[in-house]
Amino acid sequence: MSASLPYVLILYYSRHGATRAMAERLAAGVESVRGVEARLRTVPPVSPTCEAVDPEIPEEGAIYASLDDLRHCAGLAIGSPTRFGNMAAPLKHFLDGTSELWLGGALIDRPATAFTSTSSLHGGQEATLLTMLVPLLHHGMVYAGLPYSETELMATTGGGTPYGASHLAGKRSDRPLDDEERSLAHAQGRRLARLALALAAMREEGS
Predict the structure, then answer these.
(1) In whole angstroms, how large is the CA radius of gyration of the chain?
(2) Residues in CB range of 34: below 8 A, 6 or more apart
(3) How many other C-beta atoms lie within 10 A of the C-beta of residue 31?
(4) At 104, is the secondary structure helix, strand, or coil?
């Protein structure tokens, strides 16, 4: 990764791999835009057992996010499986710890988006995406969904919403992303990257 290029942070929690697969498609969309890079990060699980401690580096996949990953990003995508119409506890736990960034206004005027995966077709995808955007708005971020110029929104029989990309993982959480879901996740990453560059230029002009 070049130290000179701005990056879009793709921050996710994935239990069975579906949300991780979506994150990788968003990353490909980000990196299809010249002048910006994708940075994939995850969060550790939370446990009701106080003694449970995860290793500092996951055995596979992206490394764990730090506040600095968030502080210096040009844009942000957050992804989570749905938990009763809301994000999973590990991602919320990380976001709950970002008060110092909120107090300093570190993320104001940076673009953000969200993505999710559910095991059932009507499993709370839209509710999850809408609740995920709330902390982003508190941070002063500019939320970007998926416009209907992405024609897959009208054709999908799996996931895909104007509030953000989504995926139908199936009752065993083993259904791979279909063509429409892959295309929409890629488009969401591409749009976020373009907005990240445009809003960065706007912030520089106003400084």
Answers:
(1) 16
(2) none
(3) 16
(4) helix
Written as tens digits, the pLDDT of the chain (207 aa) is 455 799 999 999 999 999 999 999 999 999 999 999 999 999 998 877 655 566 667 777 799 999 999 999 999 999 999 999 999 999 999 999 999 999 999 999 999 999 999 999 889 999 999 999 999 999 999 999 999 999 999 999 999 999 999 999 999 889 999 999 999 999 999 999 999 999 999 988 876
Bridge partners, 81 (sequence order): 117
For 99, the token pair is: 């008060």
Nearest residue to 44 via CA among 26, 22, 27, 62:
62
Q: Which residue, among 77, 47, 78, 42, has the nearest Cα to 60 in the 3D structure? A: 42
Mention every residue, 6+ apart, whose C-beta is less than 8 A from residue 87.
13, 78, 80, 116, 128, 131, 132
Enter the pTM of the model.
Answer: 0.93
First-residue to last-residue Cα distance in the chain:
27
Exposed / middle / buried, residue 154 (Cβ in 10 Å: 0-12, 13-18, 19+): exposed
- Per-residue burial over 75-90, b = 16 or more CB atoms within 10 Å of its CB, e = otherwise: bbbbbbbbbeebbbbb
